[in-house]
Amino acid sequence: MYEDMMKDVHTKMKPVTDMAEINKTTAEKLISLQTEYVTDLFNSGLAQMKALSEVKEPKAAIELQVKYFKDLEAKLTNVAEKEIATLTSAKEQLTELVEKGVSEMSDVPAMADVTKFMQTAQEKMTELTETPVVAEMTKFMQTAQEQMTEAAKAFTPEVVAPKAAPAPAAPKAAPAAAAPKAAPKAAARKAN
Fold it and tell me: Which Pfam families does the record associate with it (predicted)?
């Protein structure tokens, strides 16, 4: 039973492991190409410096530099083409895996029901959006939005330049303190 379960898991995980293997192989190829290019770039740079140090005439040095940069460009183009070919190959392999997985999923009866349900739902949504009620509601919403925009413009205060602050007024004299009214009432209560 355990062996059957492990086989089942292994079978179901095969596309994932295949994708990981494709990614690993692609990364290894790209790293190899880049390592090879950088090593070649370093070696050709040293060789160029040695060749330039032996040249006595400026014209010969310029010709060496032009040849060096043309060779460098050709190498870079070659590496870029190889990298693009590697990435394209990986993309094709991954696409093939995904398409195979999707076709296998569509063979499952439950997926056929889900697909049928999704198509029916999409048809119903299309029918619903084409009804006159939805068209009227859309028109109403657009009109309401326009009216809200106009109302917002009407209530937006205008920006007015600030006025100079008035001079502070002289403080008023405080009125004479009035006798508290609560005191006579309290005295009247005690008297009663």
Answer: Phasin_2
